[in-house]
What we know:
Number of domains: 1
Radius of gyration: 20 Å
Number of helices: 3
Structural class: alpha/beta
CATH class: Alpha Beta
Shape: elongated
CATH architecture: Alpha-Beta Horseshoe
CATH topology: Leucine-rich repeat, LRR (right-handed beta-alpha superhelix)
Amino acid sequence: MRLALISCFMFLSSLFHPAYSSSSIRPLCRIDESSTLLQFKESFIANSTCRGPDDYPKVASWMLEGENSSCCLCDGVDCDDDTGHVIGLNLSSSCLYGSINSSSSLFRLIHLRQLDLSYNFFNYSQIPSTIGNLSMLTYLNLSNSFFLGQIPSEISLLNKLSILDLSYNFHSFLQRLELKRATLESLVQNLTNLEKLDLSVVDISSPVPNQLANISSLTALALHDCRLVGQFPIRILQLPGLQILVLGNNFDLKGYLPHLHLSSHLKYLLVGHTGFSGEIPASIGNLDSLERLDLGDCKSQG
């Protein structure tokens, strides 16, 4: 079971990490943004102990001073070929150690479209509300980075987001990233372009909103172990492009499996350890794309 879950999460991780573009001819970096990146680099403690065998401190190699320096040549930095603005930061597994607060220079990079800070150690700090300044973001990944506290409502202002991953931020079973003052419903109300949403292990403690069923672009929804309650909106399972649905370990979440069309693209359907019940539809045997099905410890029959 553990190997199966690891395999699943590795698959999900691959979905939530886009390929960053590169160009043989890099534009010159804007001086103000070069200075902004230098301030961001200096806000972290030099940490020689990385978490994984593939981690390495990308920012340590940044050379941002001198006439021949350009932040567009820095590891993990992507710039627009025409304007030179920094549009992408891929600092996943970069051994960043320290807190990010609302005054961080990061939030002055207003042209960012992709931001990946996953697999770092942000010292159980909160995600700053100034994340809302990055209104051009289409991709945001803060997973596995030891953020705690309330998810800021300002993330709902990032209406260009197609991928949002805030999963697996916790200190213990009782201390997790939370979505309580602002509900899941209010978080996604403006995120109508979402393709992939992963909030696994975030303490949501509320129902899954019907609005998610109106996002026709949704292909992956992962809400593993979120303390969800209420009735799961079955229309989500009938979204034409849905490939991944992960709802396991939400014991108070009720629902059932509807008739599934032959045109369904479902690959992962994981609803084990939930309150799902009712008859398992015979149509589930016609899903040619299905790779993994988990109905363990449910009340489903047939």
